[in-house]
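Dear V.,

Thank you for sending over the compound details. I've combined the ligand you provided, magnesium ion, with the protein sequence from our construct and run the structure prediction for the complex. I'm sharing the raw inputs here so there's no ambiguity about protonation or stereochemistry in the SMILES, which I know was a concern on your side last time.
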Amino acid sequence: MTMMGETWSHIGSLIATIMFLWAMFDKYFPDHLRSTILSYSMKLASFVYPYINITFNEFIGDSDKYMHLKRSDAYAAIETYLSGKSSGEARNLKATVVKDSSQPVQLSMDENEGVTDEFKGVKLSWTLKKNTTRTQSFSVFPKIDEKKYYKLTFHKSYRDLVCGTYINHVMQKGKEITVSNRQRKLYTNNPSQNWEGYKARKWSHVTFEHLATFDTLAMESKKKLGIVNDLEKFRKGKEYYTKIGKAWKRGYLLYGPPGTGKSSMIAAMANHLEYDIYDLELTTVKDNTELRRLLIETTGKSIIVIEDIDCSLDLTGQRKKDKKKAKDEEAKDPISKMTKGEEDSNTKVTLSGLLNFIDGLWSAIGGGRIIVFTTNHVEKLDAALIRRGRMDKHIELSYCGFEAFKVLAKNYLDVDSHPLFVTIGHLLEETNITPADVAENLMPKSLNEDAEACLKKLIEAIKTAKEEATKKVEEEARLKAEKEENEKQEDVKVDSSLAKVKENCVGVLVKEDEALAKEVKDNDATA
Ligand SMILES: Nc1ncnc2c1ncn2[C@@H]1O[C@H](COP(=O)(O)OP(=O)(O)OP(=O)(O)O)[C@@H](O)[C@H]1O
Ligand SMILES: [Mg+2]
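Below is the predicted structure of the protein with magnesium ion bound, written out as structure tokens.
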């Protein structure tokens, strides 16, 4: 279609141009005849060449001002969309190195090559063209100006389909391919003393390569499905959030004992949504201003994580502690404290600072953002920090149940069932053991260790954990009883000393009374 189309295009254009010029410049043509000829020349051109061409330039903007030229998003999307088709069809290909992509070398068709595409049964043709013009510049050598563009050619009867649906489809698919090829990043914040200077950055990043997914995550399937659905709703909810006038963000609080999968779940979320992760280490953030500067630099489609929020900062006690410290210091040096006290509250990341940024305007910039806090001690957190609306979903990651064990057995040993599963099921009902410990025991330590050996190893580990837990409970009960006994004895001691004191007091009082009575008697006698 391309070669033939090109030929007919030229013939059609030539005939139409001749007729057009003839009608335009022949002064003997009356006006009405001239317009009839013009209309017929267009129809003839369209009959000879019934195709429509659309061009997409590589650069958009003011071509006289190179600084103002911008690579067109549409061109980039078309290039990505066609890259798969080009490598199969085109004979001359061009290889480009793409940074931060899972496919670092992208193949696209070279200039003057063409590929065909099919959409809803309609055939379309794409060609890559280049216009080269020479412009005189101040330099001795003329400047060569190259303009590349994609040309889309299709039959005129599909104008509505192509303009209405196909072009959008190409843009969307192109962007989707870019996103799926893009390697995701794990960012960590740099201490602020490294923010200034050449190439200084607030965030450093590495390629995010955690392999955890919701399939490998061990937890009850119903709970897992609930979380996946919630994430899906969020991902597709851009319009909904816009409609209700809320920033497109969602907060998750993950809580539970160490080794129950909080960090693994964050990785699974990022892999599911194909989002980047910003791992925010709050202890290295000096104050609220720094926190704001860091958050403003985060991009959309990302998960901002603050792990162990209760340890990162004493968020609840911070203000109380500051006040106490301020009071003590003020007592020692009242004058200097007048200013220093105020300074203190500004030189820390405070709970209210953190809340402001979670709710703040920055979160509305760009694409969707997820904020995740993790903690081992949910009871320690300030209610304001985790109230619904800030942390929309609270997810408890808990000890390993039978369902979670089955996921781990499948992951680590590739077994769906085994006679030992029954024993393990009973033991797990009675024992608190983390998925991390179960996983550790299920992992074969040598080539000779088969599934059964690993399951037996796990049974032993659960039994040991059970015994240790029983011992711990007994020890705790013993300590409690001991403490109570000590307290009782203390009480008895206190009571007896109180009684002695009372006795002494009574003795003293009686003596005083007797002395007083004697004095009165003596006085009376003298009188
Ligand atoms: N629910 C789980 N599903 C699958 N693997 C798990 C799960 N929980 C723990 N693991 C395994 O244990 C390891 C430690 O888990 P993870 O780091 O996610 O725990 P955590 O809850 O974040 O612990 P901490 O509170 O100490 O940060 C993981 O690398 C993973 O192999
Ligand atoms: Mg963790």
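A first observation: The CA atoms of residues 283 and 312 lie 6 Å apart.

Warm regards,
I. M.
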